[in-house]
């Protein structure tokens, strides 16, 4: 009985500890969520000025910051670089020992400092000002040395850190990260950065496979099986066999797709007398399913699955065949 009571006591203590952890976790997230709401509500013309400044940059956006702000600056640089805005991080300490040479007069500088008084940023900011490099400050208070030195100053709302001692950067860095994401996405929109552009910068992993376009993996040029309307079935079969894709395009006198011939069409056409002497038009499928070269390959897989076909001809704006997407190519590319 005593052992049972002891185990029960331990379980109760453990349950209370878990409950307390969850309460603390929710408090932290709630505090940071409220700060982000205030940040969104407070965006003003300074944010627009920052986007205007960055979209005009001919070189790269340089991010810098010290300590936790530096870690956030690295993440913002990575996000910008992956969404069409060339960017990288320069450590302020290393900048003072030669890495200032990484910054050109075609660049722009974004400095992060919650206090706006981080002395390690002095050299890199002074270098930028001397060389007419635009400076954007991301700070938590104003006036401040960094904010006053900047061309554009982005000030995050006055919100308490989630740390119970109000010391460790928590809420402040979360707001800076969100503000950096906001800048990156606004720039993405300004630059008309597309999903295909995104795919070019993310060729690896599941994300890269999802963003592969039809044009990336389709058969084209001399690989494309096609014959004009009126071609004898015997000649059409020679072309179809030579290209080894199990189908061919039949085009009209303008080069537009009139229909397709597949292995299935050939089997169904066997009931026609003297099939090999007939024109391919008599056995082809008219109005087949097609796709554009700019579409995602995953969209093509969906069309093929829904319609129980294994290939799609790729058409240009004038309905001329420019490629062929086969399910085997999609599977080899990891698109499914």
What's the pLDDT, averaged over the residues? 90
CATH class category name of the largest domain: Alpha Beta
- Residues in helices, as a percent range: 40-55%
Distance between the termini: 59 Å
Low-pLDDT residue intervals, each spanning 5 or more residues: none
Secondary-structure element series: HHEHEHEHEHEHHHHEHEEHEHEEH
State the CATH architecture of the largest domain. 3-Layer(aba) Sandwich
Beta-strand percentage range:
15-25%
**What is the count of helical runs?**
14
Overall geometry comes to elongated
Provide the spatial order of strands within the biggest beta sheet.
2-1-3-4-5
CATH topology of the largest domain, which one?
Rossmann fold
CATH superfamily of the largest domain, by name, is Glucose-6-phosphate isomerase like protein, domain 1
User: For the CA atoms, what is the radius of gyration?
Assistant: 31 Å
Structural class: alpha/beta
The structural domain count equals 2
- In total, the number of strands is 11
Largest sheet: 5 strands, parallel
In a few lines, what is going on in this structure?
The protein is of the alpha/beta class and 336 residues long. It is built from 14 helices and eleven strands.
